[in-house]
Amino acid sequence: MRWWDSEVGYEVYLRSFADGNGDGVGDFPGLAAKLDYLAWLGVGIVWITPFYPSPMRDFGYDVADYVGVDPLFGTLDDFDACIAEAHRLGLRVLIDLVPNHTSDQHRWFHASRSDPDGSMRGYYHWRDPAVGGGPPNNWVSHFGGPAWSYDEGSQQYYLHLFLPEQPDLNWSNPDLVREFDGVLEFWLDREVDGFRVDVAQGLVKNMLMPDNPQRFPVTPEMSPRQVFGCYEHRYDLDQAGNTAIYRRWRAIAERYGAMLLGEVYLRDNNPNLVSRYVSKQDGLHRAFYFAPMHTPWEPSAMWSTFRDALDAAPRDFSWALSSHDDPRAPTRLGGGELGRARALAYSVLLFALPGLPFLYQGDELGLEEADVPPEQRQDPVGSRNQNPADGRDGCRTPMPWAPGPAGGFTHGAEPWLPIARSDDETVAVQRGDPGSILHKYRELLAVRRALGDLHACELEWLTDRSAPVIGFRRGDCVCALNAADAPADLALPPGQWRMAFSSERPAGAVFESAMTIDAPEGVLLARIPRSLG
Question: I need a labelling partner for 79 at 20 to 30 A (CA). Which of 28, 58, 227, 475 fits?
């Protein structure tokens, strides 16, 4: 087993986690002061979103320097102190690596743009206009509009699959490949424990750059995500050369005992495509599988999602219900108490599956999507497009630590986004209430850690797509989720089974042959040894 095989991860959206200097934006001193909370919660891995120097057009995912810390978040000394504190508490740290694109303010792009004949021109994708004028092909941006912007100085277009201020790097350039070897080693030498690789499916492009096939017509009212889905991304995503990059990085990571976790976001969440990034175990160690964020609350759909995923990659996926890019799970799953109950029950299932599960900050508080007024919205996906439906501000509002107007997030300036949370949603209130959802998540993490068979044994399905309950066995443990709207029965393997955890009721009850599971409810059962039955 590797050190990550039995852990649960926790995503920290840095600018919204904790503000240490009172400027209204989260930072490394703020994070370092709250790491003891994460250790108390029971997670083992902390993933930190980008903190590099950046003009913040995409809040840090537009990197201007891969080997520094933006003053907004602190200094390199603050970073080092944060890593040291995490390690003191027994936490491992992943940092976000953003290799698909840089900021247009990166020195590489300045050189590439200013000198068409220079050595760094090839660090990015530059192309002449199409015959008759206009962009070189029909590729579109994730964030709206064409994936090409025209540069008057050189009279060529440059490629950007995200904002125009985020030009895509050219991974067919060997000099660029070597640059990133140094980037990885810089941070590994500062004792990070690995990387979450942003847009891991997107680095390599087909250098002939033909048009992508169009699947559906584009209409004016569509959001950027809908427009992007109208095309089959045959030539701009998921190219064969991506895995060669990760094999190279794997050799570097292995020297440090570090992990590579990929954000592999592919059309239709096809698990067979995602699994290619991890199946040979010579590149990425784990890959996020995002289908759980998009599968409806319906038993057969959910059962098929996980059965297909585990058939494709039995141990190598990472699971999450929420992230900084998607609506929060309780809102997606019905809202209010129902949505929170479903999200907790769903988490029981994800935490028991083979692979590496992650919480997104605030999941453990049952936070729903926040309603950010239009005049306070910041996300460029929402503010730059006619249809703001894909805007991500609602899942990025600051972490509510304590009652009060700033939610304990900052002691000075107004938070960069409104807190928009009730007192009952804060860490302080829920930590003081043994019956809170925060304590349920803490209990779930502790039970998961105690049930060693969850990590050591293969999965055996106990139900099929016709059942309202999704159930499986791993050694002496059984996990089941009732995804229907009414209580349902689950037949149990032979023996006696003790309720180790339930999302809805106390632990301790003993069952034999069968049990009734509430709706919604997720349960973990531990087999009682025969001599003790």
Answer: 58
Q: What is the pLDDT along the chain (533 residues), one digit of tens a residue?
A: 899 999 999 999 999 999 999 999 999 999 999 999 999 999 999 999 999 999 999 999 999 999 999 999 999 999 999 999 999 999 999 999 999 999 999 999 999 999 999 999 999 999 999 999 999 999 999 999 999 999 999 999 999 999 999 999 999 999 999 999 999 999 999 999 999 999 999 999 999 999 999 999 999 999 999 999 999 999 999 999 999 999 999 999 999 999 999 999 987 789 999 999 999 999 999 999 999 999 999 999 999 999 999 999 999 999 999 999 999 999 999 999 999 999 999 999 999 999 999 999 999 999 999 999 989 999 988 777 777 778 899 999 999 999 998 999 999 889 999 998 999 999 999 999 999 999 999 999 999 999 987 888 899 999 999 999 999 999 999 999 999 999 999 999 999 999 999 999 999 999 999 999 999 999 999 999 987 54
SS (H, E, C) 146-193: ECEEEECCCCEEEECCCCCCCCEECCCCHHHHHHHHHHHHHHHHCCCC
Cα 391 from Cα 377, distance rounded (Å): 8
Active site residue 263: yes
Cα separations (Å) of 521 from 295, 296, 337, 528? Answer: 17, 16, 13, 22
Q: Tell me the C-alpha distance between 509 and 456, whole Å.
A: 25
Asked whether the whole model's pTM tops 0.90, one would answer: yes
Residue 198 appears among annotated catalytic residues? yes
**What CA–CA distance (Å, rounded) separates 21 from 27?**
8
Provide the token pair at 247: 């094999």
The number of helix segments (H) and strand segments (E) in the chain equals: 14, 17
Residue of 85, 168, 263, 368 marked active site: 263
Catalytic entry in 85, 104, 165, 198 = 198
**Domains (range + CATH), the chain:** 9-99+174-204+239-445 (3.20.20.80), 107-159 (3.90.400.10), 458-532 (2.60.40.1180)
